Amino acid sequence: MLSLIEKQLEQAGLSLREFSELLMRLLDYGVICRDESQIEQQLYDRYLRLEDLVHDYLQLIGLRVLHDRRFQFLRVVPPGAVVPGMEEEAGFEQSQAFRLRLNQNEVALTLVLRAQYDKALREGAVDEHGCVMVSLETLGIAMQNLLKRQLPDQLTERKTLFRRLRQLRLIHLSSDDQLGDGDTWLRVRPMIMSYVSDDVLSTLLGDDSPAVGGSESDDVESTGSESTDTESDQQQAVQQDSVQPEPEQEPDETDQAPTQATAGPSLFGDLDDLTATDTESEASNSVTEEGK
Length: 292
Hints:
This protein is mainly α. Helices cover about 35% and strands about 10% of the residues. The strands form two sheets. A three-stranded antiparallel β-sheet has the order 1-3-2. Mean pLDDT is about 75; it is low at about 215-230 and about 250-290.
């Protein structure tokens, strides 16, 4: 099998090390957004040259890749997950492997971000990258209206919350030091649509009509049972259908040289016990600059 992989890599003009770097990044972080950093731009472009090979390799362990060619992002989907934009996979319906675990604050913020994204879609307020701009003040008001919750008052807790969603590439925030200011703006990425289905969103909004962006069949998870507690009803729909990314901080785009690997949480470990680690340059899968 290795010789077959090496033959395909030779045809693509890439080394086994470059292939390994791409796979480790996908397994550790679960997402790659081309516009996030120069490192992720290199990895995304590398994926385009190895798409079939990566697909076949990950398929052996039941993983799939959601590839949005328009907005240029990749998301690794765990076995049996039902994700908007992807066909359901037979044979893994009961699998809980590689599932993401989010706390209630993270689930609540994800739901509200999805609602704000849908609102911007309806108003046509989407940029060329598929992102929408939302102020922190607007998020706080929407969270109170939809879920009767508030953003964390403590700046440290708020930073942790938004850093988590930035790791999932659901948002882009220039600096989390500004999270104490209600006038701070952030970008909500189109990847948010693959985390919260239209049916879940419609239930959240109390709207029987399908939301913008997909059909009723594009569920993240079934919402069959009715409940008065909307957030409780939909927490698993958000948290379970994503591969666990390795916690990180905002990458430094200037650091493209390889760094020494450090011990960190693994995709194959206990997903409930993962805690934050150091910056991206200290993560277990630092990517070398292509062409060297």
